[in-house]
Specification:
- Helices cover 36% and strands 26% of the residues.
- The chain has 231 residues and is of the alpha/beta class.
- Helix 7 packs parallel to helix 8.
- The two termini are 32 Å apart.
């Protein structure tokens, strides 16, 4: 579904991604791991079009999206749960969700399906974004992305700064999305949760992929965990 081929991405003169190659197959959950500053978020930004790579290519469903505007990439079927949630504080839960709604002809994700999956959002439907807890805001961010009915969901550290109970709830949600064969590329610092939900993992260091394998192969490689994940 997604093929990233040797991309090199810069912020001005800062050379961030140095030949990143990865793939996500249909129905697969792939996790991108690494310390802060390794290039994980920049990889997602390159895919969604916020920071296009200078060289290299990105294909989505066999279509070259490398230099498409972000709105066209989103319409092509890629959804984003950004780092820091970034919901609209002055809009209600319902309004935040409906902003991303895409017609599904009664199938897929709509308001009812999101509320069924995350009942807390239904209870808080009329509350504004700035009246929600951090965990509730994260649920809105995930629900908003699902409302676009993406073929591929990019998630940037969805458990960052959240209480253990909320982390557990997000892990449950990710496992249910996995059971529905939702394709996901997940950036995550919580290694335990990441290895629980992922089919495959990539480890990044200094803008490069330094490991690719299954969760079990990473568990069996303590040197990679120690050197690149600080475990």
């Amino acid at each position: 579904m997604l093929q990233v081929n040797g991309i090199h991405t810069y912020y001005g003169d800062s050379y961030i991604l140095q030949g990143v190659t990865l793939r996500v197959n249909a129905g697969e959950v792939v996790c991108l791991l690494g310390r802060n500053g390794a290039g994980k978020t920049t990889t997602l930004r390159s895919i969604i079009g916020f920071t296009p790579p200078r060289t290299g290519t990105i294909f989505f469903n066999a279509r070259d999206i490398t230099h498409l505007p972000s709105d066209r990439i989103a319409r092509a079927g890629i959804g984003l749960v950004p780092q820091g949630r970034r919901i609209f504080p002055d809009l209600t839960v319902r309004e935040n969700l409906m902003l991303a709604a895409r017609r599904t002809n009664g199938k897929g994700w709509d308001l009812s399906a999101v509320y069924q999956q995350m009942p807390r959002l239904s209870e808080r439907e009329k509350h504004r974004g700035d009246e929600l807890s951090g965990g509730e805001q994260q649920m809105v961010a995930i629900g908003r992305a699902l409302m676009s009915n993406p073929e591929l969901l990019l998630m940037d550290e969805p458990t960052e700064g959240l209480a253990p109970l909320i982390v557990h709830e997000i892990a449950r949600l990710l496992l249910e999305l996995k059971a529905k064969k939702q394709s996901i590329l997940l950036v995550e610092q919580n290694l335990t949760m990441a290895l629980r939900v992922a089919d495959r993992v990539y480890v990044m260091n200094k803008g490069r992929i330094v490991f690719e394998g299954t969760p079990n192969s990473l568990r069996d490689n303590p040197e990679v965990e120690k050197q690149y994940l600080g475990i």
